[in-house]
Amino acid sequence: MSLMRASLSWLSAFGPPRLALATAMLTLLAACQAPPAPPELRLFDQYSLSEINVDYSRLNQPLLVSDLEGEINRAVSGPSALNGLGTRLGLTNQQAKQEAMQKAISAHITPHMRDQLTPLFKGTRPARAEVVVYSVFIRSRLSLQQLTGAEVTIDGVKRPDTPQIVAGLRIIDMQTGQPLQEIAPITKTDDGSITVASSGPKAPEYGASPRLNKLAFDFAREAAYALSHAAPAAGFGPGSGAVLGLAPGGSDVKTLWSMQKVE
To answer: pTM above the 0.70 mark?
Structure first.
């Protein structure tokens, strides 16, 4: 600053116009010499993915995966033929059936999420990914509805004609329990199209249902894309307000918390 004052004192003899120009040039020079701002901390730089959970608390009942239903019915019914009939008709063992279905669906979703999300996280502070399932509905290709085109409604809501999964994603700081980011529900539907070798990556085979496996793979890819393209914030953690961003993939990504530094 002493240099600037000395220069301005010397240039004052040239009149106001030249003095104003000199002042602007010296101010710009001083700004260019200022130390650079510290790099912005991002979620992926601070956190490592330590855990993946599947949350069914917002589920739009009932779950249906026809590829898994027969085996699950037999598992929860036991050897009794009458008990098995009651399970298939929805008269008995419904709680056990839903729990078994949730476990089977999670076994398809979790490995795909791990494959897609783990490479994104480069830090050390543990984070948990929570997949929030709203609907999984995959009925048999030989069902009466599929063969006749009849509509199926549950609680007045039309069920999809083709296999469908609807789920969102939350990232949680495991040390504080605070949410870091949340992705709005993503709907993936299998329209029965055939994937050729050059049209994109093929889903690894996880679980016993090929159709659910494909939907889980597609969901995991889109969720990871939305997360990786979230609008950058000034770090993550409790106590600094909310920022709303839109990922190029079309999914809404909401940053719920942010902070400058994580120790």
So the answer is: no
The pair of three-digit structure tokens given for residue 148, joined into one six-digit string = 């006749």
Tally Cβ neighbours within 10 Å of residue 96: 14
Tens-place pLDDT, residues 66-110: 888 888 888 878 877 777 777 776 777 788 888 999 999 999 999
Q: Which CATH architecture has domain 43-60+101-255?
A: 3-Layer(aba) Sandwich (3.40)
Place of tokens 């040390």: 175
Strand partners, 138: 65
- pLDDT 10s digits, 191-216: 655 455 445 678 889 988 999 999 99
Strands of the chain, DSSP E: 47-55, 64-65, 125-138, 153-154, 157-158, 164-173, 179-189, 243-246, 252-255
Domain boundaries, the chain: 2-31, 43-60+101-255
